[in-house]
Every structure is written in structure tokens, then in C-alpha cells.
Design a protein that fits this description.
Number of helices: 3
Distance between the termini: 48 Å
Helix content: 25-40%
Strand order of the largest sheet: 7-6-5-10-9-8
Oligomer: single chain
Number of domains: 1
Radius of gyration: 16 Å
């Protein structure tokens, strides 16, 4: 079954474990290498875009980020403070969700904002300006996502996340 929204088209797979009931138990979603973006949805839920699938998760994007950090052995606050210390930035810092693979995501706005999306750094191929307040993100699998943020804001967030990635790789190699 394929669903399209005003952002992307994806196959909807109810049999995958991420975000669905299996045996009557809800399984939580964790950010992975397959994650492209986590986008707020209605009723405090999220649309999670992966390579060829889309999941509706009954948690906010921020709650998914917190859970993903815990799943990989840390806390969101710890990851945020670590990134702040490395970058010297205070606001909208990228988060290293899983450090052995430098799985880094960045927020499009303040992480506490209802409209904040989380984008996976390593999956971004390029960005394009649509208009003053909208930017198209093209992922490495050529899927596209339009976010309600200026091109400059997304460019800054990409730069900040890339800088964090470079610094961490240099730390690992020294």
C-alpha cells in the first residue's frame, strides 16, 4: 500500500516493528541509519520517513529523539550538552544519537517547538530554496521533503551538524 502526503510518497508497511502494535504491544521507534526525517503530525504524533517507508508514530518528534538517545545509552540532555560543548553553540544544536556510526540529526527549529522536524545529516544530498519560508531537502535516495524553514536556516543547521561530524571523526582518529 502506498500513501502520499504533501511531503512524500511512501509504501506503508504495518508488519514492520517500528511504531506498530505487534502481539498487542506498541514497539517504540529508534532513529537508525535508515531514518531520513522525523516530522510532526497531528495529535502529538510523528511521521517518520525512512528509505522506502513512512511510519506514523504516536509520539512527538522530541519524544522519539529522547527515546532514541536512551536506547543508545545516553540521554537527550547529555547528547545536547556534549554537542554544545564541542560546537560552542547554545541553540538548535545537532544531536549525536548513536556515536559509533556518528548518527547525527539536526532540528529545523527549536527542538521544543511543535513544528520542529529532525533531519538525518548523512542522508541529505542537497537542499533547494523554494521561497522565503520553505526549503526542499533532497535525500541520498532522491526522496524529497519540503520543510517550513528558510533556506538559510537549513543551510546553517547542515553546516553546524557537518562541523560536529568532522570534529568527532577527528577526535576518533587522534
Amino acid at each position: 500500500m502506498t500513501f502520499c502526503d504533501n511531503r512524500m510518497c511512501y509504501k506503508y508497511n504495518e508488519n514492520r516493528r517500528k511504531g506498530f502494535l505487534i502481539g498487542g504491544k506498541f514497539m517504540k521507534y529508534e532513529v537508525s541509519k535508515g531514518t531520513l526525517a522525523i516530522v510532526p503530525n497531528e495529535n502529538e504524533s510523528s511521521l517518520v520517513y525512512e528509505d522506502e517507508e513512512r511510519y506514523i508514530i504516536p509520539e512527538t518528534p522530541f519524544a522519539i529523539m529522547e527515546e532514541s538517545c536512551r536506547y543508545f545509552g545516553s540521554t537527550y540532555e547529555g547528547r545536547k550538552n556534549g554537542a554544545r560543548d564541542i560546537l560552542g553553540a547554545e541553540y538548535k544544536v545537532p544531536i549525536v544519537v548513536e556515536d559509533s556510526n556518528n548518527l547525527i540529526v539536526f532540528p529545523t527549529t527549536s527542538p521544543s517547538a511543535d513544528d520542529c522536524c529532525w533531519i538525518s545529516l548523512k542522508r541529505v544530498k542537497k537542499i533547494e530554496k523554494i521561497d522565503t519560508n520553505n526549503t526542499k531537502i533532497i535525500f541520498d535516495n532522491n526522496k524529497e521533503l519540503i520543510v517550513d524553514c528558510s533556506y538559510r536556516m537549513i543551510e546553517n543547521q547542515l553546516s553546524r551538524a557537518s562541523r560536529l561530524d568532522l570534529i568527532l571523526r577527528n577526535h576518533k582518529n587522534s
